[in-house]
Amino acid sequence: MSGRADSDTDPEITDPGAAAAQDTEPDAVQDDEPIEADEPIEADEPDGTDEPDDDADDAAEGARRARWTAAGTGTVLALAGLAAALLRLDRSVPALVPAAYAGGAAVCAGAAVLGARGRTRRALWLLIAGVMVMALGDQFD
C-alpha cells in the first residue's frame, strides 16, 4: 500500500454486494445465509468428552501469578533500596539520601506483604510510590 489517504479503495472491499455483482463465473455457487453471531456453531461429529469449564482455573491461576509477581517484585525492590541505603551511608552525602532509600525500601516491603495477601492493585501503587521515593533520594545524591 502506498499509504496515501486519497487512494481509491477497491469496490470489493467497500461494498460486499459489489463483489457478488462482479462475479463472472457462470457456475459459481452462492453461499447459503451467513451464520449469525448468536447462533451456535455445531460440530459435525461430537467427540463424546465432557470437559469441565476451565474459566475458574484460569482465574485462580491468574490471581496466584499476580500475588507472586507483586510479592516478588516488592521483595526485590525492598532489598535493592536497602542495599542502596547502606551503600550511601559510607559516603559523605546528606542524611536525606540514605533515609529516602530506606523509606522507599520500607514502602516496597509493605507492597510485598500486601501482594502476598492478594491486594495486588494496592501493592502496585505502593511499589510505584516506593520507587518514586527512592528516585527522589537519588536526586539529592
What does this protein look like?
With 141 residues, the chain is an all-alpha fold. It has a domain at 66-139. Helix content is 62%, strand content 0%. It has helices at residues 11-14, 16-21, 55-90, 96-116, 120-139. Helix 3 (55-90) packs antiparallel against helix 4, helix 3 runs parallel beside helix 5 and helix 4 runs antiparallel to helix 5. The radius of gyration is 30 Å and the shape is elongated. The mean pLDDT is 78.
Explain briefly what this protein structure is:
The protein has a domain at 66-139. Helix content is 62%, strand content 0%. The chain has 5 helices and no strands.
How many alpha or pi helices? 5
Q: In angstroms, what is the radius of gyration? A: 30 Å
Distance between the termini: 53 Å
Query: How much helix, percentage-wise, in residues?
Result: 55-70%
Mean pLDDT: 78
The tally of beta strands, per DSSP, is: 0
Helix/strand class: mainly alpha
How would you sum up the major sheet? none
- Note the overall shape: elongated
Percent of residues in beta strands: under 5%
The topology string of helices and strands comes to HHHHH
Low-confidence stretches: none
Write the layout of secondary structure elements.
Blueprint: H1 11-14, H2 16-21, H3 55-90, H4 96-116, H5 120-139
